[in-house]
Amino acid sequence: MTQNTPPGDRIAKVIARAGLASRREAEQMIARGRVSVNGKKIDSPALNVTTSDKVVVDGKPVGAPDAPRLWLYHKPVGLVTTTKDEQGRPTIYDKLPEDMPRVMSVGRLDLNSEGLLLLTNDGGVKRKLELPSTGWLRKYRVRVKGHVREDILEPLRKGLVVDGERFQPMTVTLDRQQGANAWLTIGLREGKNREVRRALADIGLTVNRLIRLSYGPFQLADLKPGAVEELRRKVVRDQLGLEMAEDPKAAPARTRKRRQVRR
Q: Using an 8 Å Cβ cutoff, are 82 and 88 in contact?
């Protein structure tokens, strides 16, 4: 007996590709009754739709998906990487340029961390970049309190278990001792929640500054705090292995838009 796969794509994927939400967020929107297909409200994401179906979210039709786009953002200290914060703290979305489309962050940087954060308009790109199987190196510049010796850092290089969670081996370089602080460069490939801070705390070191320098092939370089730079479409296509049709709304391949956050 054979089973035929329904034509089209899953409804949550369609909503994500339209830049309205991540797939997980789209599934939550569906569960809350915010999505209808062909005039009928749905409550389950187990549905495939095609271009002939009319998908509506919060009363507004979902258009054709935009071409996948990717931005580099230099996140400053003091912003949380969420759309809303229960404690009322400012978020990265409060500070992005007003003409930015709806974007999602690839992973997170916590309130007191700074540096490179990738932003995308495409839920599929977000998911692909966050998959552990991608194995891209994330590199951090870290300042810790105290005098550091090479032997103290060995557990990081070998891998360790913190609160029952296994952290894979990291690349760690002791750059210099500067007074009561030391600077390290740390590379890791998993990026678990607060992994660098937790791992360093486990070996007795307190982080007092953490800057993400790179995420895979994407570099912070000289991007100023608060600035946003859109990557060329060819770079996005080549690095992510995407097949992308020409989109007149997307930035031309030769441009590199760099904008400063509004103050």
A: no
